[in-house]
Design a protein that fits this description.
By secondary structure, the protein is mainly alpha-helical. Helices cover 75% and strands 2% of the residues. A hairpin with a 4-residue loop joins strand 1 and strand 2. The chain has one domain. It has 14 helices and 2 strands. It has a two-stranded antiparallel sheet.
């Protein structure tokens, strides 16, 4: 992976991490279109630069994240992330095997897009407008919905937002809780990919792949910085569009992109 390829992948990650269109799918498609080989460093890079995108939400909502007087906020996030931690570890190998199947991911994009076309009609009467009104039980249910995104192409954001709306949250409240939930979820994924998971036949840890050369370290740092900056812009953009137009525009996008890429990779 060269510097230009890393920049492009990081921009794609930053733009799509918090949108209901699957950042994993878009990074995978981008890498394939750039002709990048499916090497272990690339797989690790695509997972670990999500750390930069995580920090963008922490900065944007810093008052919420650093208001230690509301301990139940952290407790709800901790409960909600447990399903992803358990199932993610259980199905890690199966998830990685699907990452290279671009046709399956394209089909998942299309199916998810069709669902998004109807979501706004299914949940017309939200009852919860603020995170404070989300119970621990509702948080855990949303956490299980988030696990649907373990299938690449589903979108963690879409799954958790729809999960929130099934629990009576408004579009805005569901999106913001999805952002909050992304922080412990993706932090856990990043830590796992860097320090616990063994990549490839040599069984190298993620940090060993990063520290192997100065170029690898530079690309990793650059990717996280770019993902951070771009994600900050994308989060504000998404909240505005979601509040104003709902999910339909994203459903149309997913169907069009998924169909185009399915044709391309077929």
């Amino acid at each position: 992976m060269d510097t230009l390829q890393a920049i492009i992948i990081a921009i794609v990650e930053g733009l799509t991490e918090y949108l209901p269109i699957s950042s994993t799918a878009h990074m995978g498609f981008t890498a394939a279109l750039l002709g990048m080989p499916e090497e272990e460093y690339l797989k690790m890079f695509q997972v670990s630069i999500q750390f930069g995108a995580i920090l963008s939400v922490v900065l944007l909502y810093w008052r919420k994240f650093f208001d230690f007087s509301h301990w139940n906020f952290y407790f709800k996030l901790a409960c909600a992330v447990v399903p992803a931690l358990l199932l993610g570890k259980l199905f890690d190998d199966k998830i990685e095997a699907v990452l290279g199947n671009q046709k399956a991911i394209a089909i998942t994009l299309i199916v998810g897009g069709i669902i998004l076309m109807f979501v706004d009609n299914w949940f017309k009467h939200p009852k919860i407008e603020d995170e404070k009104d989300i119970t621990v039980k509702k948080a855990v249910v949303i956490g299980f919905w988030q696990c649907l995104a373990m299938m690449p192409g589903t979108s963690r954001s879409a799954a958790s937002i729809i999960g929130g709306m099934t629990q009576g949250l408004s579009r805005k409240a569901a999106a913001e809780f999805s952002f909050f939930l992304a922080v412990p979820t993706m932090l856990a994924v990043t830590v796992y990919s860097l320090f616990l998971k063994k990549w490839g036949t040599l069984g190298q840890k993620g940090y060993e792949l990063i520290m192997a050369t100065e170029q690898s370290l530079w690309i990793f740092l650059l990717g996280n910085v770019i993902a951070f900056v771009v994600a900050m812009i994308a989060v504000k953009f998404f909240i505005h569009l979601l509040t104003k137009f709902g999910f339909k525009v994203w459903g149309i996008y997913r169907i069009l992109v998924g169909t185009l890429l399915l044709w391309y990779f077929w």
